[in-house]
TrEMBL record:
<dbReference type="InterPro" id="IPR005103">
    <property type="entry name" value="AA9_LPMO"/>
</dbReference>
<dbReference type="InterPro" id="IPR049892">
    <property type="entry name" value="AA9"/>
</dbReference>
<keyword id="KW-0624">Polysaccharide degradation</keyword>
<dbReference type="Pfam" id="PF03443">
    <property type="entry name" value="AA9"/>
</dbReference>
<keyword id="KW-0503">Monooxygenase</keyword>
<dbReference type="Pfam" id="PF00734">
    <property type="entry name" value="CBM_1"/>
</dbReference>
<comment type="similarity">
    <text>Belongs to the polysaccharide monooxygenase AA9 family.</text>
</comment>
<keyword id="KW-0560">Oxidoreductase</keyword>
<dbReference type="GO" id="GO:0030248">
    <property type="term" value="F:cellulose binding"/>
</dbReference>
<feature type="compositionally biased region" description="Polar residues">
    <location>
        <begin position="234"/>
        <end position="260"/>
    </location>
</feature>
<dbReference type="InterPro" id="IPR000254">
    <property type="entry name" value="CBD"/>
</dbReference>
<feature type="signal peptide">
    <location>
        <begin position="1"/>
        <end position="19"/>
    </location>
</feature>
<dbReference type="GO" id="GO:0005576">
    <property type="term" value="C:extracellular region"/>
</dbReference>
<feature type="domain" description="CBM1">
    <location>
        <begin position="264"/>
        <end position="299"/>
    </location>
</feature>
<dbReference type="GO" id="GO:0046872">
    <property type="term" value="F:metal ion binding"/>
</dbReference>
<keyword id="KW-0136">Cellulose degradation</keyword>
<keyword id="KW-1015">Disulfide bond</keyword>
Amino acid sequence: MKIAASFAAAVALVQSASAHYIFQQLSVGSTKYPVFQYIRQNSNYNSPVTDLASNDLRCNVGASGANTQTVAVKAGESITFTLDTAVYHQGPISVYMSKAPSSAASYDGSGNWFKIKDWGPSFSGSSSSWPMYLSYTFNLPACIANGEYLLRIQSMGIHNPYPAGDPQFYISCAQISVSGGGSVTPGNQVKIPGFIKETDPGYTANIYSNFKSYTIPGPSVFSCNGAPGGDDGGSTNPPTTTLQTSARPSSSTQNPPTNTQPGNCASLWGQCGGSGYTGPKCCATGTCKATNDFYSQCVQ
């Protein structure tokens, strides 16, 4: 029985990984460092945060600096975040920074944050393409002050439209020590939580219905020259996903079959159905809820 239970747990973890993901590895320039050496390791595996009022929105559940090293970087240097698997859910990617009062390792992220990079969708006719990559590369601002920072990356999955479902935040924070910088204090600083509201258009967007434009939630992107930061490329491994958005598929035809074998079912928040989906079609925890013809998810 113990062997069977262990096997079932392992299967559940694998199934969860098929739908969820985590930013786990940092590169500075051309140097790639070990997994979680400079990124705070969370305690909720690869599950998302959904509560807009939670402090877990800062660096994820259980992520602290106690066992995380801080890497030395130069202002303006190229940084890459790499995931365990490519981003699976449609939605924007954003990068934020927050200057630590002293050390990054002891900082809880309760101070001010500013955004330095966005990746959003591109539109062509009735379809949209999202930047669903394995790695995301960008440059630190060259003008920011020297010191230690939390460097936060976030994927906000909006595949299960609000209010029927809540956007899912996949978050990681790296600890960096910046040198060679300037003296500019970034504007448009925000607190996390509090940087995104339930009424923000980018939070409530329905990507399956008349989806022709999109505003990424949060503050504007800080740029040293004062120009707005772009949401263009800068990522590696760019197999973008194209989603037809001319009309929202009806959810009435999506009735995921049940399965009486929990060991073969998707874990909580995992995908459990959808057109073309070949994975588990039942939930080990929660209920399989259809959002549309393309996506069903295990929810509580």
